[in-house]
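Submission checklist for the structure archive. All mandatory fields must be present; incomplete records are returned to the submitter.

[x] Identifier: DUF5337 domain-containing protein
[x] Organism: Halovulum dunhuangense
[x] Residue count: 67
[x] Sequence attached
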Amino acid sequence: MVRRQVRLGLIVTIGAFVAWMVLQFLGGQLGLPARFVFLLDLACIAALVFALLVLFKAWRASQNDGV
């Protein structure tokens, strides 16, 4: 259970950073308005907060299990 949570947290974290870099590049190339780029930034931040909560929950579970 803990390993699955850690894996999910890592996948979401890596995916959010890769998506953020790609979307920043595409936003500049396509000339997207700043409000849309800001909305994409907020979506990536939300993904990172989700990953942080999942990893914190996994850490707490490992502390309780003594792993």
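[x] Structure attached
Curator remark: Residues 13 and 49 are 9 Å apart (CA to CA). The chain has two helices and no strands.
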